[in-house]
Amino acid sequence: MVSTPNAIVEAKAVEFYYTGEETSASPALSGINLAVKQGEYVALIGPNGSGKTTLLKLFNALLTPHTGEVMVEGISTDCEEKISQVRRMCGMIFQNPDNQLVATTVEEDIAFGLENLALPSGIIRQRVDDAARLLDLEGLLRQPPHLLSGGEKQRVAIAGVLAMEPRCILMDEPTSMLDPAGRREVNATVRDLNNSRGLAVIHVTHFPEEAAAADRVVVLSEGRIVGQGPPEEILTDLEMLHKLGLQGPTAVELAAMLREDGYPLAPQLLNSRELVDSICSLERKS
Amino acid sequence: MFIGTEKLTHTYMSGTPYAKEALRNITFSFEKGDFALIIGPSGSGKSTLIQHLNGLLRPSSGRVFFDHEAIGSDKHKLLQIRRRIGLVFQMPEEQFFSETVFDEIAFAPRNLGLEERLVRNRVNDALHKVDLDAGTFAGRHPFQLSAGQKRLVAIAAVLSLEPEVLILDEPTAGLDSAGRRTLFNLLTNLNRNERLTVIISTHHLDEVAALAGPVLVLKDGRLVMNGLAADIFIRRSELDELGLALPPVTEIMHNLFEAGLPVNMAVYSLTGAKEEIMKLKRRRD
Questions:
Q1: Which residues of B are less than 8 Å from A179 in CB distance?
Q2: Is B185 on the interface with A (CB under 8 A)?
Q3: DSSP collapsed to 3 states, A211-249
Q4: Is A165 exposed, middle or buried, given 0-12, 13-18 or 19+ CB atoms closer than 10 A?
Q5: Does A44 touch chain B (CB under 8 A)?
Q6: What ipTM was estimated for this complex?
Q7: Coil, strand or helix: which one is B23?
Q8: Is A132 helix (H, G, I), strand (E, B) or coil?
Q9: Which of A7, A115, B6, B170 lies at 20 to 30 Å from A77 by C-alpha?
Q10: Nearest-CA neighbor of A39 among A13, A66, A68, A9?
């Protein structure tokens, strides 16, 4: 199988069954071909149970495919002796930061993965401080993680992953337990790391507004990729989204309802600002 | 006062270096049959407050009321109160421990000492209330369910005690939009048809704003707003300062209004927004 140039992570003809379901007619994933390049921000959407989390776990070598291959920086995740290298390059952020924070202070938590690599303590200190600075956690280093806000905890989890100097961050609904301010904080932080350090990002989300900020949106349904493209293409295809029980961004949904009733709006409005501007200019003209 | 608090204050780890005042001087009340919201940023005290409402936490000072009586420390009475006020925690399906959906839901009624025939009735009723077919689901392993179905089973497990009040802590976290719609339709029906008092603590207002009656807004353990949804959701700049976001559709209406268009801002549904904007067009035509 030929690899996609510049791919940080790549799934090639992947099929995956959970144990005990090998004979089932519907594998958890099948026919998955997906490559994510350096610096690319991919949103992964789909109904509950469509295989989004399973796919993330394959990229992180928490699971390995039954057929096909998953490559991380050219290394197959099947290669047992290189699993820790794969996991270092592809860090995972889970939905609930409480499931991911292990130490009694923020700095120990960020250092946890590094200590397991048996790095010299000077280097660990350096990397912890760098990660803390990037995520604006310097003032919290000696705090116990459980006393932080949800957004702060999720930033600590990201710092712990970042300290491992990964090439790709896999995020499984990282904002679903956070308040709107925490959501904004985490989304802005990750987008910033993606821009400034060329980190590839795969972001599983149920919020269409979050998917709209990605470079590419990939849609999963029943274990298959059923659509992908830029957000203005995928997230405005309401017929496809609704068929899967998904919704488009609010502005797209509202624009479609207005057009149906004869309100003249342009076809590819994606966000609220575009919608508000269009309505204002139409109403002011008269 | 059906359910509420009077000058409730709660301090965690009181007397240690980590002592933290989680709630200060909270006074409010909800009536029977209300569909109420408790909103506020993470760490504002929402979960602490709702754990007082069914006696899981005890006030450091002040009082909690249910059915016109202060909740005391009498163990027998507390047990009664916890039956009448059901609490659904965040991510409740993480606490599943039974082999089948039936056993999961039957756990609480069995603990009441009901005979198995009555337990079966309770389980079937509870599944019916969350719109899951008992024949299809009762025998399944909880892990064979979708995320949305798991959440419904967790709610059924609380409904099996036939509570008068159902409190849900961030009930839609991790659900897709179809799952969120199903859940809210169901809660609306239980509230209207069975007169179940529903109290939801959340920071996602998208689907729930249109359903809300009374709303409490918490910030740093203090009650900063207390009123009806229509009066609270009009205060966008204050909510924004608290780090709370109105439903996106309401945001759009606020932005249109601020741009000088004569639209009603108290709109929480797509249909409502469409009608407001079509009014502009009709007037223009």
A1: 40-42, 203, 243-244
A2: no
A3: HCCCCEEEEEECCEEEEEECHHHHCCCHHHHHHCCCCCC
A4: middle
A5: no
A6: 0.80
A7: strand
A8: helix
A9: A115
A10: A9
Is B203 in CB contact (< 8 Å) with chain A? yes
Question: Which pair of tokens denotes residue A114?
Answer: 């590094």
- Kindly provide the residue ranges of all beta strands, DSSP E only, lying in chain A, ordered along the sequence: 7-16, 29-37, 41-45, 67-72, 75-76, 90-93, 168-172, 200-204, 216-221, 224-229
Phi-psi region of A229 (alpha: psi -120 to 50; beta: other; left: phi over 0): left
Q: Residue ranges of the domains in chain A?
A: 7-230
A47 interfacial to chain B (CB closer than 8 Å): yes
Closest residue in A to B45 (Cα) is A149
Alpha helices in B70-212 (DSSP H): 75-84, 101-111, 116-129, 134-137, 147-159, 177-193
**What are A69's strand-pairing partners?**
A12
Minimal C-alpha gap between A169 and chain B (Å): 19
Q: Which residues are paired to A10 by β-bridges? A: A35, A71
Residue of B nearest to A262 (CA): B278
Set of chain B residues whose Cβ sits within 8 Å of the Cβ of A271: none
Q: Tell me how far apart the alpha carbons of residues A59 and A51 are, in angstroms, rounded to a whole number.
A: 13
Beta strands at B165-169 and B85-88: parallel, antiparallel or unpaired: parallel
At A258, the amino acid letter reads L
Positive/negative CA dihedral, B130, B131, B134, B139: negative
Q: How far separated are the first and last CA of chain B, in Å rounded?
A: 51
May I ask the CATH architecture of the domain B3-246?
3-Layer(aba) Sandwich (3.40)
* C-alpha A161: how far from chain center: 13
Containing A66, the helix (H) or strand (E) segment is none
φ/ψ of A34, rounded to 5, equals -155, 125
Residue type, B185: N
pTM above 0.90, yes or no: no
**Any A CB within 8 A of B50 CB:** no
A149's CB contacts (< 8 A; 6+ apart) are A182, B41, B42, B43
The CB-based long-range contact list for B230-238 (8 Å cut-off, 24+ gap) reads: B230/B266, B233/B205, B233/B209, B233/B266, B233/B268, B234/B265, B234/B266, B236/B265
For residue A132, the distance in angstroms to the closest alpha carbon of chain B comes to: 21
- For residue B249, give how far its alpha carbon lies from the nearest alpha carbon of chain A (Å): 6
Per-residue pLDDT of chain A (286 residues; tens, 9 = 90+): 567 888 999 999 999 998 777 777 778 999 999 999 999 999 999 998 899 999 999 999 999 999 999 999 999 999 889 998 999 999 999 888 888 888 999 999 999 989 888 889 999 999 999 999 888 899 999 999 988 877 788 889 999 999 998 999 999 998 887 888 888 888 998 999 999 989 999 999 999 999 999 999 999 999 999 999 999 999 999 999 999 999 999 999 999 999 999 999 988 889 999 999 999 998 887 6
Q: Which CATH class is domain A7-230?
A: alpha beta
CA-nearest of B6, B49, B52, B73 to B202 is B49
* B127, B104 contact by CB (below 8 A): no
